[in-house]
Amino acid sequence: MSKFFRFCNIVLSPVFNVRRTIVGFSRYPRYFIDLMRYKYLGGSDQASLIDIYPCLFDRTVTTSYDSHYTYLNAWAFRRILGENPDKHIDIGSQVSFITTLSSILPVTFIDLRPIDINLSGLTAQKGSILKIPYSDQEIVSLSSLHVIEHVGLGRYGDPLDMEGSQKAIAELSRVLAPGGKLYIGVPVGKPKTCFNAHRVFDPVKVIQWFAEYGLTMENFSCVFDNGDYSENTSPSELMEEDYACGMYQFTRMI
Do 230 and 206 share a structural domain? Predict the structure, then answer.
């Protein structure tokens, strides 16, 4: 029965999150008690009812975070910093990642959905991971974090294509220069397609797919299903995970 409720929650969550609704209603009493207590403190900083702004989910024992994106962005940032390239190209990663990276080196960010941003060190342009606007073997430093698994599912306005992820792998490999570094992050574990959110890949096959285009894996780190981060792990250790995060650093050998 728990699987049924999980299924219902996933399907309905875009318009109705059952768990969040139930928990939210249960926390309103404490919110209004705190509001009244605050008003009775008697200071000048009074809160008008018209301006109340209930934040019901932030009173936690520890600070929550998304383990995939937090560790993946940190992993990629540190490895790029260690390589110290003259410039970096990113395809579709989180805006927080590319804006932070642009503080230490020039970054060009390419995405299907144009981003209007004015920040020194960052150039943003519209483009597709299926047609990267660079010549063969031109890019020395390249990343695409939590992107490949979405290609071809239509989630971001891209055309439906069952081979979308494989085509993205081919295109990323095409533009990577000899000696260049490619950083990717994808969901790994037992293979499946969760339409239209993402795909989960066999962690070993990801290496094989890139090897077909002449790329060699230099580093593999990961986040397991339980949220634990591990550096220099064997991809085979994640074969039975449901939704782990595989972090791969590839290079094209000269």
Answer: yes
Task: Please state, in angstroms and as integers, the Cα–Cα distance from residue 167 to each residue in 125, 210, 230, 248, following that order.
Answer: 21, 11, 29, 18
Number of structural domains in the chain: 2
User: Which two three-digit tokens encode residue 154?
Assistant: 């239509």
The 10 Å CB-count burial string (b at 16+, else e) for 133-142 is ebeebebbbb
Q: pLDDT tens for residues 11-22?
A: 877 888 888 899
What is the pLDDT, as a whole number, of residue 128? 97
CA distance 219 to 120: 30
Predicted TM-score (pTM) of this structure: 0.93
Domain with 200 in it: 67-252
Q: Is 166:213 a contact under the CB 8 Å cutoff?
A: no
Q: Is 160 a domain residue?
A: yes
Residue 8 has pLDDT above 80, yes or no: no
Same domain? 96 vs 219: yes
Q: How many CB atoms lie within 10 A of CB 212?
A: 11
Residue 254 pLDDT grade (very low, low, confident, very high; cuts 50, 70, 90): confident
The answer as to whether 58 is a domain residue is no
- The mean pLDDT value for 105-110 works out to 98
